[in-house]
């Protein structure tokens, strides 16, 4: 079990009328002039050199360094080289830079891997990301640029999962005019609370389980280190089990104004089947909006300006898949070549910096906007387990049970007569009545082929007591239809239920980008089960558990209280094929 968890966390973390796309949206498929240029190996690589770097508070951080060598002699190559830095929490046995850095070192980079404060052989106490790790990263950047032997003075950050996420904190901490010229945070999230710590207000066991497998450094005591407050709160229902100032300080979306002000370009990556599916899109949106002075978490609409300084890739992958393969390694190299070596690659000149794999059609699409189209369609839960375009005319309800989550309520749409593309987040609105003080409803949206085989598109969950909707941060499509519900998830926003009360609960279902062929159906499954988008189990706090136990949750499908699903759906003709293969197709 420990080995499996370490592998997960090490790889972690975290039939309708035709629609004609408006010209402003369709133009987003314009081809970029840049194409990847694979580069042969020029150098060999040295064996790792071990050193320590002293932080501003006196803590010693361990690093290992690999240099380019003359492949004929094995001696260090003459001259100076840009430096790539990766910050690893998983201990000396997993921080060998020859693995992660091999591709880059052989193409003219020095590669440095540090052991995060409180881990491996580094000093200090372990915490969960945050400002202190950002400060450490800033000191490492300065050391790599000005002190490290052989450095050309320009630095980039590389790494996946934890090694990707902590790049954002360093980029926010370095200040303007830093030697840090670019970052490539892969396998990353955007919102620390909603992506990693909880789903729908229910804590996940992600942070507590990661904390058990990170090898502690010589000065870190697992009983009193800073990370333990977060672990304890998530387990017991303390302040950090809710969204609060602590989680806001860790939010990558909220860090983006600092990162943009510091002038740090970012190329991020995640997968539709990741630990936090398409988790980097929020950072992409926030980066573009910060650059142009728009509200940070607002959708990017067709026609709004974007910059090639903030790009994102979302592939059909699980967490960490394909990152070390030649395709994605070469794309990162080209990104670093652009910003650290000053090569005129043209990579940053794109007007479509969001690179999406379209599921079911297996093609790459380039976009500027997210969602690419705001055209929406709604389906209502109706009698006989149906989804219909019209609201129900007869009162009815279906009951799901907290004590028996294996009895879900399932609803199917008619078969589509024309293909559509699902191109963004989904909202499921439930009107429910509970026999207990609280309710949990999980919504899974599936695609069902003509033979009845269902494939999950996305899911989401929501505690009814934390149902308060933040309309200023929620996303709306055409006709003011809600497609992405935003909830405060604060303790102050909590509203418990009474047995006779029917309440409206909006469930934010994670985004997807999928072709729905003609003849396929949509399916919505409602249950009280933990959603499967989290690969690490969720666990209600003791108080949440007490408020949910033996609950019966009646989901209304009645006139005036019509539960529904709303999706962004548009025509496949809107999306051309990218001239770039942004990664493997599986």
So what's the overall shape? Answer: globular
Number of helices: 13
Gyration radius (Cα, Å) is 24 Å
Portion in beta strands: 25-35%
Strand tally is 28
Mean pLDDT: 91
Provide a compact summary of the structure:
The chain is built from 13 helices and 28 strands.
Supply database-style keywords.
about 575 residues; disordered N terminus; alpha+beta; 10-stranded mixed β-sheet
Account of the protein in words:
It is a single chain. This protein is an alpha+beta fold and 586 residues long. Helix content is 21%, strand content 30%. It has a ten-stranded mixed β-sheet with strand order 2-3-6-5-7-8-11-12-13-14, with helices on both faces. Strands 15, 16, 17, 19, 24, 26, 27 and 28 form an eight-stranded antiparallel β-sheet that branches. Strands 18-25-20-21 form a four-stranded antiparallel β-sheet, with no helix packed on it. A hairpin with a 5-residue loop joins strand 2 and strand 3. The longest helix has 16 residues, at 131-146.
């Amino acid at each position: 079990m420990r080995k499996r968890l370490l592998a997960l966390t090490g790889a972690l973390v975290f039939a309708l009328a035709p629609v004609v796309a408006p010209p402003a949206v369709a133009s987003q498929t314009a081809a970029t002039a840049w194409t990847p240029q694979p580069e042969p190996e020029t150098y060999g690589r040295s064996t790792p050199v071990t050193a320590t770097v002293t932080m501003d508070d006196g803590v010693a951080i361990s690093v290992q360094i690999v240099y380019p060598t003359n492949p004929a002699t094995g001696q260090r190559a003459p001259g100076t080289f840009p430096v790539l830095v990766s910050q690893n929490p998983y201990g000396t046995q997993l921080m060998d830079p020859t693995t992660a850095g091999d591709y880059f070192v052989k193409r003219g980079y020095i590669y440095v891997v540090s052991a995060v404060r409180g881990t491996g052989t580094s000093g200090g106490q372990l915490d969960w990301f945050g400002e202190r790790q950002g400060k450490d990263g800033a000191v490492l950047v300065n050391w790599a640029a000005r002190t490290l032997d052989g450095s050309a003075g320009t630095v980039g950050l590389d790494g996946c999962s934890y090694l990707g996420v902590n790049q954002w904190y360093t980029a926010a901490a370095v200040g303007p005019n830093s030697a840090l010229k670019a970052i490539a945070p892969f396998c990353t999230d955007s919102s620390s609370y909603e992506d990693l710590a909880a789903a729908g207000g229910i804590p996940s066991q992600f942070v507590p389980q990661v904390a058990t497998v990170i090898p502690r450094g010589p000065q870190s005591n697992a009983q009193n280190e800073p990370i333990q407050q977060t672990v304890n709160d998530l387990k017991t229902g303390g302040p950090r089990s809710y969204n609060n100032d602590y989680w806001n300080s860790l939010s990558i979306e909220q860090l983006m104004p600092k990162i943009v002000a510091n002038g740090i370009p970012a190329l991020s990556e995640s997968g539709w089947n990741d630990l936090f599916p398409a988790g980097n899109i929020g950072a992409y949106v926030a980066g573009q909006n910060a650059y142009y002075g728009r509200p940070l978490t607002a959708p990017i609409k067709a026609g709004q300006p974007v910059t090639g300084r903030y790009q994102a890739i979302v592939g059909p992958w699980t967490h960490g898949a394909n990152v070390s393969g030649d395709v994605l390694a070469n794309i990162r190299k080209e990104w670093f070549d652009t910003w650290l070596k000053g090569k005129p690659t043209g990579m940053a000149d794109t007007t479509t910096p969001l690179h999406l794999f379209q599921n079911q059609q297996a093609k790459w699409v380039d976009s500027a906007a997210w969602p690419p189209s705001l055209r929406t369609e709604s389906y209502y839960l109706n009698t006989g387990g149906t989804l219909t375009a019209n609201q129900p005319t007869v009162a009815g309800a279906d009951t799901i049970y907290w004590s028996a989550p294996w009895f879900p309520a399932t609803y199917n749409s008619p078969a589509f007569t024309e293909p559509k593309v699902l191109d963004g987040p989904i909202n499921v609105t439930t009107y429910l009545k509970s026999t207990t003080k609280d309710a949990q409803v999980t919504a899974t949206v599936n695609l069902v082929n003509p033979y009845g085989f269902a494939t999950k598109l996305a899911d989401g969950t929501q505690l009814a007591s934390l149902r308060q909707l933040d309309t200023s941060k929620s996303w709306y499509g055409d006709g003011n239809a809600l497609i992405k519900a935003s909830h405060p998830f604060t303790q102050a926003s909590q509203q418990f239920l009474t047995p006779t009360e029917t309440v409206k609960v909006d469930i934010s279902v994670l985004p997807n980008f999928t072709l729905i062929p003609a003849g396929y159906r949509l399916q919505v499954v409602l249950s009280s089960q933990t959603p499967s988008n989290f690969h690490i189990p969720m666990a209600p706090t003791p108080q949440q558990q007490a408020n949910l136990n033996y609950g019966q949750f009646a989901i209304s499908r009645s006139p005036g209280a019509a539960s529904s699903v709303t999706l962004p759906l548009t025509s496949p003709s809107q999306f051309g094929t990218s001239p770039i293969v942004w990664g493997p197709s599986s």
